[in-house]
Amino acid sequence: MSRSVRIANEILMHFRSQRKLQGEVSLSETLDADQEGNSLSLMDVISVEDNMLDVLDARDSCQKLRQSIQDCLTPREAMVITMRYGMDNKAPRTQREIATQCGISRSYVSRIEKKALEKLKVQMEGEPGRRMK
To answer: Where are the alpha helices (DSSP H) in the chain?
Structure first.
């Protein structure tokens, strides 16, 4: 067998083996080199942020806030805060919208909101004065 036939066979075998692996990708396969000459793999290029702890912390904070709303606010204060900050799975409402819906003045909604936020701050910081209904 001549040298050119062997080379042609090697090339053909290479392409056949590549076709078998066509649908497979290795995350550690080198793709390219970065600007400093270091090799880059698919794993280096595809980044997944590890934000599980942030998500769990946010979920814990939301649960604590909802519990604090239930524990230390009057029903009217809880309603205003829930509506104002969209905690009822609806868009947050303005003080005017809340006032219209509740049949009270906007300035009264503002006072209720301010007092409720102060209570929640105390509750969330763990200071004395819990259950301030």
So the answer is: 3-20, 42-45, 52-72, 75-84, 95-102, 106-125
